[in-house]
Amino acid sequence: MDAPTEPSPPGEDGADEWTEDITLPTVDRDGAAARDVTIRVGAPALAVILLIDGGTETRIGGNDYLACLTRARDQLELQGRLLCCQGAGPEVQPSGLLRQFSHGREAYVRGSGWPGRPDDVVDIFAPAPEGSVVGLAEQRDTAMAFLTALRDARRDRDARPDRGARRDRGARP
Q1: Measured between alpha carbons, how far is 108 from 111 in angstroms, rounded to an integer?
Q2: Taking 50 as the threshold, does the pLDDT of residue 108 lie above it?
Q3: What residues have CB less than 8 Å from 99, skipping those under 6 apart?
Q4: What is the pTM of this model?
């Protein structure tokens, strides 16, 4: 059965406003191309997507689009597939504020520091090159390693002996 081209009828969650269809490739764990999927995106206020994979349609809801994408990726990973989208990049992570304002649709690409600059923002559903995506566990591990390194760098900076001396220079007696 071919994937439908028309939106599905409304579900119990009221997701009758589909805003766009995005076709994305998937790859297996070895990086070999697998079957493409389509993500049908619901209106932002609904936080729902429809994962169309072959002849199967799975409605996925969540608190925001990132939660929906995470659940869709988890489902594909159980089949041994990775979704080739920007949200699956190893260094892609939203900030709480960006996640709130974009309904989880945008995230930062870490690298030069935290928080990211405006040009470091990506649409999590935008296509990503095969070979540039990772599984959820590896993405989580990368985020934790980054945050740990950032914490350690701040702790080392604050522990420098000359740190207190600089603060005292401008102090009044």
Answers
A1: 9
A2: yes
A3: 64, 66, 106, 107
A4: 0.77
